[in-house]
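Structural prep section.
Before we set up the soaks we want a predicted structure of the protein with histidyl-adenosine monophosphate in place, mainly to decide which crystallisation condition to try first. Input record follows.
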Amino acid sequence: MIKAVRGVRDILPSEARRWQRVEAAARQVFEAYGYAEIRVPLFERTELFARGIGDETDIVKKEMYTFEDRGGDSLTLRPEATAGVLRAYIEHGFHVEPKPVRLYTLGPMFRYERPQAGRYRQFHQANIEALGETHPALDAEVIALLMDFFEHLGFKERLALHINSIGDAGTRPAYIARLVEYLTPHRAELCPECQVRLERNPLRVLDCKTPGCQPIIEKAPSILDSLSSDATRHFDSVRRCLEAMGISYAVDPRLVRGLDYYVRTTFEVRTTELGAQNAVAGGGRYDGLIAQLGGPPDPGIGFAIGLERVVLLLGEEHRSRALSAFLIPLGEAPLLRLMPIARALRQAGVSTELAFGDRKLQRELDRANRVGVRYAVIVGDSELEQGQAIIRDMKSRQQRSEALDDLPELFRRLAAEQPLDDERPTR
Ligand code: HAM
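Run finished without errors. Recording the C-alpha cells verbatim:
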C-alpha cells in the first residue's frame, strides 16, 4: 500500500465541513475589511524565499522543499505566502493603486519540519498583507481583523494576543550587540541549538522553548529598551489604537518571530490548548522588504493564520446531515418516475440521493438513517399508480402521502421553513 508522505495529511469528508466553515469565516471577515483575494503560485524561484525570508532563518536553511526543474532552474514549494504576494505586487505594478493595497490569500504551504500534533509538512494558512502605508493605526486595524476572525468562530476567550516591537533595521544591530554581550558568558549553559543561534541569529535565542535556556532568557535585556524614539512612538500609538478598540493584549518583549523580514510591530495569537504548537497566527510589519525584493520602497504589514490549528480548536462537530431527501423507488417503474424528480430536487438545491430500486425497503431505510437524512420518499407500484409518494420523517418516523408532482415544491417549502440541513454550528 502506498501511504501519504510523512507530515502530509488528507482532509477527509468528515472534517471538510469544519474547513469550509473556517475558510468561509476568513473570507467574510477579510472582505469586510476591504481585502481582495489574490492567488499566487505554489512554487517560486528559490532566491525569492532566500532573499525574502532570510538566509539564516530555520525556514530557509533547513525547511524548504527545493528542487531543480528540468530546465535547470532552482524552484521551491512556498513555505509561506508573503514573499509570493509581494513578488506579485511588484510584478503587476500594484503600487500605483490607492494605498494601502489590501490582499488576502488562502492555501497550502510546505515546510520540512519534524511532524507532530498541529505541525505538518504541508499545512494551510489564511494570509493577509496590507501594503504601502506606515501609519500605526493600520497595524492596530490588522490586529483587530485577526481578532475578529477568531471572535467570529467563537474563540475569543480561548486565545491570547501577544505583541512586541522589534525596532527598526537601523537600531536593531545595537540591541543584538547588547544581547550577544549578555549571552556570551552564559554560552555553555545554553542548549546546543541556542549556541549556534548565538553565532548566526542571536535574536532567535529569545524564542527558544528549551527549559534550560529559560532562566537565562528571562534576564536578557529587553528589546523595548533599545528602540529608537520613532519606533517607540509607533509602538505606543499601536497600543493606544488597540485600547481604543477594547482589544486586550500582552506585551511580550521576547516575541521575535521566525522570519527575518520583520521590523517594529510583531504579534502572535496563542492558545494553551494545543500543547507545544501554541501559535495559531502570527505576523508583523516588514517595511523595507518590498524594496529588498526589487520593488518600490513601500512598507507593509500582514499575518498568517495556521488553519490546521484553528480546525483542531474547533473540535468535533455533530455529524453533518447534509442530505435532505432520500428517494426510495421499489422497482424499476418507480425508479424511472423518480429519476426526473430527483433531478428537479437537486436543481432546486435540495441535496438528494436516489436509490436504485433493487433492494428491500428496510435496507434502504437503514441506509437513509446511516447517511443521515431528514426525509425519505418511498414510491412502490401502488403509489406510482396513484401518482403519490410516502414521505417519511426519519426523526419522528411519521409518514404521510403527497402527490409526486408536488415534491419539488414541497421540499422547497420545507427548506424555507426550517433548514433541512441538520447541521448546526457548534461553538
Ligand atoms: P509563521 O509564524 O511562520 O508566519 O506562520 C504563521 C502560522 O502558520 C503559525 O502561527 C502557525 O499557526 C502556522 N504554521 C506554521 N508552520 C506550521 C506547520 N508546520 N504546521 C502547521 N501550522 C503551521 C508566516 O508564515 C508569515 N508569512 C506571516 C506573515 C504574513 N507575516 C506577514 N505577513
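Observations: The radius of gyration is 28 Å.
Flagged for discussion at group meeting.
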